[in-house]
Specification:
The protein has about 290 residues and is an alpha/beta fold. Helix content is about 35%, strand content about 25%. A six-stranded antiparallel beta sheet has the order 6-10-11-8-7-9, with helices on one face. Strands 2-1-3-4-5 form a five-stranded parallel beta sheet, with helices on both faces. Helix 7 packs antiparallel against helix 8 and helix 7 packs across helix 9. It is globular, with a radius of gyration of 19 Å.
Length: about 290
């Protein structure tokens, strides 16, 4: 069997780790190279042979789409797939038209990624170009999304209220295509630590220690960014497209800067989330009034 080399391009170290780990389940893949940007990926392609590129859509500097277009303009015919939280019809159509072989939507299953990589390496056309989690109640959607992302059982129950002010909290806010803040995710610190640690299989003891301090170290902050980026798929109501804007931590008793907008929220749902093997905690998904 011919052995191939795959290049994984993503500005998230956690996501590169996850994709690389999944590629070990593909028989044909003998080696995986990583690049934290499109610019770094171009250097890799200029020095080493690569049989398949797996790339994020949104990255700092050159985007994944710009990277693909640059490769095609330069005559590179290496198969190219996107792994991204973007799943709109416009993104899917643009990816197809630009020459991508497939698009895998975060969070993805091992089966889906392996099937698309294997088919692409075999030169087969992929009918299911882009997948995604099914619509449904947000409690069910949140559990499904986190299970696929964290690769462990997740239990989600509706809660009467969200994270209390008396505990440290983290927030992630989301903006629409025009840059307007449209949604907010508020996460109790112990749950933020649990989800962030579980993403890259860090020990539960470390997650508990970070939760008690109310602060996330750089590694977990990056992981939390990746988790909340994916949560953006369901944080809003309806067909509104939104992207993660920024994350921030708040000490016990500290008022959130969006408190007035939260009072006028279009919708606010609160959940208790239990990450198997880690601490449970509260999360609120809030959509601002238009």
């Amino acid at each position: 069997m011919t052995q191939v080399r795959v290049l994984v391009v993503d500005d998230s170290r956690a996501m590169r780790m996850i994709v690389t780990r999944e590629l070990r389940n593909v028989d044909q893949v003998s080696d995986v190279a990583e690049a934290e940007s499109a610019e770094a990926a171009i250097e890799v392609l200029g020095s080493e042979p690569v049989d398949l590129v797996l790339c994020d859509w949104n990255m700092g500097g050159m985007t994944g789409l710009e990277f693909l277009q640059a490769l095609r303009a330069a005559g590179w015919a290496v198969p190219f797939g996107f792994i991204t939280s973007e799943s709109s019809d416009a993104v899917v159509a643009t990816a197809r038209q630009s020459g991508a072989a497939f698009l895998v939507v975060k969070p993805f299953t091992t089966t889906e990624l392996i099937a698309k990589v294997t088919a692409t390496l075999a030169g087969q056309a992929i009918e299911d170009f882009a997948g995604g989690i099914a619509d449904g109640e947000r409690s069910v959607a949140l559990a499904t999304l986190l299970e696929q992302l964290l690769r462990r059982p997740i239990t989600v129950h509706s809660a009467a209220v969200g994270p209390p002010r008396q505990s440290p909290r983290w927030t992630a806010d989301y903006a629409d295509d025009a840059g307007n803040k449209v949604a907010l995710c508020v996460v109790e610190s112990k749950l933020a630590s649990s989800m962030s640690a579980a993403l890259t299989m860090l020990p539960t003891s470390a997650a508990a220690e970070w939760a008690s301090s109310g602060a996330l170290p750089a590694t977990l902050t990056e992981n939390f960014h990746e988790v909340t980026n994916v949560i953006g798929k369901i944080v809003h109501v309806g067909d509104l497209h939104c992207v993660l804007n920024e994350i921030a931590g708040f000490a016990p008793g500290e008022q959130l800067p969006d408190s007035e907008a939260i009072k006028a929220a279009k919708s606010a749902e609160h959940f208790e989330v239990d990450v198997e093997g880690y601490d449970r905690g509260l999360v609120s998904l809030i959509t601002f009034a238009s």
